[in-house]
Amino acid sequence: MKNSAKTVNINQFRKNHPATIKISNPGGYQKICIIGRNCRNRKNLSPTLEILKVGGYQNILLTGRKKKGVFIMNKKTKALDKETYKEIITAIRKGFNYGEHVFKPNKRLATLLVVQANIGVRISDILHLTLSDVVYESGRYHLDIVEQKTGKGRNFTVPTELFQFLKQYTEDNGIAPTARIFPISERAVQKQLKIVADFFGIDGISTHSFRKFYATEMYLNNDYDIELVRHLLQHSSSSTTQRYISISEKRVENALKNHLCII
Question: What pLDDT was estimated at residue 188?
Answer without folding.
Answer: 94
